[in-house]
TrEMBL record:
It comes from Kribbella solani. One of its GO terms (molecular function) is sigma factor activity. The lineage of its organism: Bacteria, Bacillati, Actinomycetota, Actinomycetes, Propionibacteriales. Residues 26-92 form the RNA polymerase sigma-70 region domain. Keywords: DNA-binding, Sigma factor, Transcription, Transcription regulation. Belongs to the sigma-70 factor family. ECF subfamily. Residues 122-173 form the RNA polymerase sigma factor 70 region 4 type domain. SUPFAM superfamilies: Sigma2 domain of RNA polymerase sigma factors (SSF88946), Sigma3 and sigma4 domains of RNA polymerase sigma factors (SSF88659). PANTHER family: ECF RNA POLYMERASE SIGMA FACTOR SIGC (PTHR43133:SF61), RNA POLYMERASE ECF-TYPE SIGMA FACTO (PTHR43133). This is RNA polymerase sigma factor.
């Protein structure tokens, strides 16, 4: 009976009452809309599937509170909006890969009369001057883009050690460039 319902609000209300077929139809009916919406809001098609899944997880956890006063589509898209906002806040609070300003600074600090001198050579020379532990962590997190937690696990260090070594490596590189 629930599969014959096409209205998302009716499907949500039936799903709220425990109708698993209605729940399946509800998700299938609105999945494409939610995915399009989160893709547009996040501007990141790579995370759209994860955000869509997170939206539906949140919706299913609070489905018991849905009373049908607004359309289920509107209700679900408001959950999607909050899901994307939370994801953007979470990403903004993560450590970022170092800006590429060090490449420009390395180029500018080298003599201009050397033909074909590349920033990679300058960076390699600067990195060679760093202590081994700082160099390893800096290259892994800032150049290879490995998240701090994953680098810590890989290297067998606490995350705080990875963060402090990256910070010290940045300071060392800035001091070397200024010298």
């Amino acid at each position: 009976m629930a599969s014959a319902l096409l209205d998302p609000t009716e499907l949500a209300l039936a799903a709220r009452s425990g109708d698993r077929t209605a729940l399946d139809s509800f998700v299938r009916t609105l999945q494409r809309d939610v995915r399009r919406y989160v893709t547009a809001l996040s501007a990141d098609p790579n995370s759209a599937d994860d955000l869509t899944q997170e939206t539906f997880l949140r919706a299913l956890k609070s489905l018991h509170r849905f009373e049908g006063r607004s359309s289920a589509r509107t209700w679900l898209l408001s959950i999607a909006r909050r899901t994307v906002a939370d994801d953007l806040r979470r990403k903004a609070s993560r450590p970022r890969i170092a800006d590429r300003d060090w490449q420009r600074a390395a180029e500018q600090s080298q003599p201009t009369q050397l033909p074909g001198f590349e920033e990679r050579i300058a960076l390699a020379e600067l990195l060679d001057q760093l202590p081994a532990g700082r160099r390893e962590v800096f290259v892994l997190t800032q150049l290879a883009g490995v998240p701090y937690a994953q680098a810590a696990t890989h290297l067998g260090y606490p995350v705080g050690t990875v963060r402090s070594r990256v910070s010290r490596a940045r300071t060392d590189l800035a001091d070397l460039l200024a010298a």
